[in-house]
Amino acid sequence: MLDFTPIDAIPKIHEGLRKTFLKRTSLSIAWRQHQLLQLARMMQENHQAFADALNMDLGRPAQEAYAMEINPLIERAVSSAKTLPGWAAPERKEDEVPEWQKSWKPTVYRTPKGVVLVIAPWNYPLILSLQPLLGAIAAGCPAVVKPSEVAPHVAAALAEYIPKYLDNNAYHVVNGAVKETTKLLELKWDHIFYTGNGTIARIIATAAAKHLTPLTLELGGKSPVIIDPETDMEIAAKRVLYGKLSNAGQLCVTPDHIYIPTSKHPDAAKKFIEAFKKAVAECWPEGALTSPNFSHIVNQAHFNRVQSIVNQSKGKVVVGGASDEKSLKMEITMIAGIEEDDSSLQGENFGPLIPIAEVATIEEAVEKINARDHPLVLYVFSQNEDVQNYIRENTMSGAIVYNDTVIQLAVNELPFGGVGESGYGRQVLRYTYEAFSYLRTSVDVPYSIEPMLSMRYPPYTKEKWDM
Ligand code: NAD
């Protein structure tokens, strides 16, 4: 059972962080670097406890826990500490301004916004709590982290270890559910970084608006896949499967559904389905339901939700379909022969489900994608540059990824985030740091240019006008 933070402690925590910020404790670069390295140490020294917590909450195989959450956090904490002095260095603008302003020392300072709140979801509960925290630390902002109560073991581990490694006057974990988060949202924060679904995002945005608090919203949506029928089906199927198997499809960038044009290649869908079936069999020769190499669905409610999408679908299950309510496991399940109004093509399925719809052409796939909300990612399997460019130029999404899935998360230098219903704001390393900083500008106007400035004072004579 997860210990929730007492409601009346929440305003006191907030007040404590405000005091720390006003004392400027969190501002020194050396102090921030130390906290970042402490966070790396926390992960390194307790990696087993975190891997176990992920396994208890999600049945997460150790290899996935390290590859997707633990190792990237250590790497990003260390790299943030290393590159922070460069990020935070004042940006001098002498070279960009006109000649007559060069002596004014025009400068941009990246300055901490203040006391910030991070609200995380359950699906990647560790990295999605701590990655925003890394940015807050780097930016010099004291922070509260509110992990998801739906992943209680990870939430408990964060509450246990963060106070042992980070400065308690600057960083706090608040655990709880709606009541606790509602209390947090009554308070004035200087930035809120929320990761989760679009419905709750609207509650967060409404609460933030009362205080004019800026937001980062990392949301989800249906990330579609377009398969060019001329691509290598075996490799494409394997790579789509990779995006679906991680955390049993409970991943914001998981491929949600597939469009495959078949007017010129009538057997393209059949070939893809066969290749996908083969790839699944290779991953779990003993079957996925009893395999330790496959996560379970987070809880009964989500299990029922995904199962009911399958039950209501008018399509045909062509791969997988079996599930085990006791272990909350569901095989990777592909549904074919569906229309746009099928249950499997409505909300984000956020599970091990992958519908495949035949369309006539690439243009039709693009039309269907544009008729929906802008996705977080659009996946395109095609080596044809004309096809790649056509799809990129005629659609919108947070990212467009050619010829693989999910691997884009490994490119730390690219900003990650959505557009429209998939959210706004960007993260990872420098971009998270930027989210918690504001650009404070400065000029220092020398007295020596007073003669040049005389024109601005009345009386506005012709002589001054001609200067
Ligand atoms: P969730 O249910 O854990 O909710 C997220 C957070 O919101 C939790 O901390 C929870 O306590 C809080 N919350 C819940 N109800 C609330 C309320 N009424 N008022 C205030 N706070 C409340 O997680 P979820 O939303 O189910 O997460 C899955 C969604 O997140 C999916 O849509 C997924 O695509 C998206 N997601 C996006 C990203 C990204 O980086 N873009 C990453 C992971 C997940």
Structure in words:
The protein is an alpha/beta fold. The protein is 42% helix and 16% strand. The chain contains 16 helices and 18 strands. It has helices at 9-22, 29-45, 47-58, 62-88, 127-139, 152-165, 178-186, 198-210, 233-245, 268-283, 300-312, 362-370, 385-393, 430-435, 450-453, 462-466; strands spanning 91-92, 107-112, 116-119, 143-146, 171-173, 191-195, 215-218, 223-227, 255-261, 316-319, 323-324, 329-330, 333-336, 353-359, 377-381, 399-402, 423-424, 437-442. It has a seven-stranded mixed sheet with strand order 10-13-14-9-8-15-16, with helices on both faces. Helix 3 (47-58) runs antiparallel to helix 6 (152-165). It is globular, with a radius of gyration of 25 Å. The mean pLDDT is 97. Nicotinamide-adenine-dinucleotide (NAD) binds at residues 119-124, 128, 146, 148-150, 177-178, 181-182, 195-197, 200, 203, 218-220, 252, 348, 350, 376, 418, 423.
* Estimated share of beta-strand residues: 15-25%
What general form does the structure show? globular
Low-confidence stretches: none
Largest sheet: 7 strands, mixed
Fraction of residues in H or I helices: 40-55%
Extended strand count = 18
Spatial separation of the terminal alpha carbons: 76 Å
In what order do the strands lie side by side in the largest sheet?
10-13-14-9-8-15-16
Structural class: alpha/beta
Number of DSSP helices? 16
Radius of gyration: 25 Å
- Bound molecule kinds, no repeats: nicotinamide-adenine-dinucleotide
Average pLDDT number = 97
